[in-house]
Amino acid sequence: MTTNTNTAATTGTTTTGATTTGAVTPAGTGGDAGGGTGRIDFAKAAPKVFRALVGFDAAAREGLDPALVELIQIRASHLNHCAYCLHMHTNDARKAGESEDRLHMVAVWREARHFFTPKEQAALALTEAVTRVADAGVPDDVYAEAAAHFDDAELGHVLALILTINTWNRVALSTAKMAGTDERR
User: Among 15, 30, 53, 133, who pairs with 25 as Cys (CB 3.0-4.6 Å)?
Assistant: First the structure.
């Protein structure tokens, strides 16, 4: 659940709540907000933490191509099984003009490389490695490939974005956010 390059209430990733330029309210910010799960509304329970995450998300996406931002967020959300964020980010990607073909291929991008640029492939591979860091760390070859496509500042932002979406996914999953209930509006 990350934020998008638009204001928190407009587009972005999985953020729900604070409207900050360049950030979107994370999905999973308010577990029981209308969902009847009995879980906390994260944005209300920890507002300073929530605002800090929204700010981190907004800073992470600065200077990155909005289409790349959504691809990263979609892939991490697939891996984390976060339906709330996946729904939010695929919708945001469509609104930003992303094709249905590419959206359908994100989960199997290695078998459908022709749908993605080498830079996008490097970002998707890094997203997988960082999201699954406990499995095998971040392999040197994956990092080197990403570093070959992004300058240091861009790579720092890509890494930060991967960290934010993984955080938002965990917030959404922990608070039982329901797909289709985008609370950013």
Answer: 15
Look up the pTM and report it: 0.81
119: exposed, middle or buried (Cβ count in 10 Å: 0-12, 13-18, 19+): middle
| DSSP at 23 | E
Number of helices (H), then strands (E), in the chain: 9, 2
CB 15 within 8 Å of CB 3:
yes
Token readout for 27 is 């999905």
Residues in the chain, total: 185
Q: Do the beta carbons of residue 158 and residue 13 sit within 8 Å?
A: no
For residue range 107-141, what is the model confidence (pLDDT) as tens digits? 999 999 999 999 999 999 999 999 999 999 999 99
